[in-house]
Predict the structure.
Amino acid sequence: MINIHPRNDSISQETLDAYRAVASGTLGHLLDTAMEGSIAALWKPVKLVGPALTVQTVPGSYLAVAKAADVAKPGDVLVVNRAGELRHAATGEFGSVQAMEAGIAGMVADGPITDRAAIERIGFPVFCTGSVAMVTKPHGLEEGAVNVPVQVGGITVNPGDLILADDDGVIVATPQEALECLLDCQAAEAWEAYAREQIASGRKMFDFRGERPRFVEAFLAKAQRGG
């Protein structure tokens, strides 16, 4: 039996949209919740932001992933614990097509996928451990769960957590952490853009790095005034 638990939709669309302009490493300066480097982008460049739709599978079966796609909302990110399964793919070309048709934004899995070239061609963001030539079979066990805490890449992911993933990897934040960290992330992104401009103009980082505290302070003050 595949148990489907209630969703957590507490993260706002406004917050999700704001994180599309934030690099995973920027949030990683504030939180220690990045997944292990073995969970990597299947193709690049790629950006994936959305609430986690978590899936617990059993070895050899994809049925819990299929059931999650049936209850997904547009923008969800499938986060799949493969129960140590490293020989069978978590998804392939047509599984990815169906996920896209359901409005799913992408997938993060602690196992491999198949049809690497096709998934890149259709533009479905996938973060996984690699690719294999063997898929799960239709007669897999009807066991697993949807919307439960899962361990993926050394991190516990809860339903509704923010998933922020790009070429550098995957980081996770609770809805509360995402909200609390957003302004600091935006300030850091603004500083880095300024720093790149200064470098392009010929300045050395040694000469302007001391400007950062005042720059960030001014950014935060302006943001809090609504400017």
Observations:
- Residues 183 and 224 are 9 Å apart (CA to CA).
